[in-house]
Amino acid sequence: MMFKISPENWAFLIEFAWLCAKAAGLLGFVSLSVMFLIWWERKVSAHIQSRLGPMRVGWHGCLQTIADTIKLLLKENIVAKDTDKVSFWLAPLVSFVAAFLPFAAIPFAKNLVVQDFGLGLLYIFAVSSLGVIGVFMAGWGSGNKYSLLGAMRASAQIISYEIPLVLSVLSIVMLTGSLNMTKIVEAQGQVWFAFSQPIAFLIYFISALAETNRAPFDISEAESELVAGFHTEYSGMKFSMFFLAEYTNMFVVSAIAATLFLGGWQGPFLPGIFWFLAKVYFLIFLMMWIRWTFPRFRVDQLMNFAWKFLVPLAFLNILATALFLVLKK
Amino acid sequence: MLVNTYSCVLLFLAASTVFVLASFVTSWVLRPHKPSPQKLSTYECGEPTKGTSFIQYNVRYYLFALAFVIFDVEAVFLLPWAVVCKDFGLFGFIEAVVFIFILLAGLVYAWKKKVLEWL
Question: Which of A183, A221, B34, B59 could join A229 in a cystine, given CB atoms 3.0 to 4.6 angstroms apart?
Answer without folding.
Answer: A221
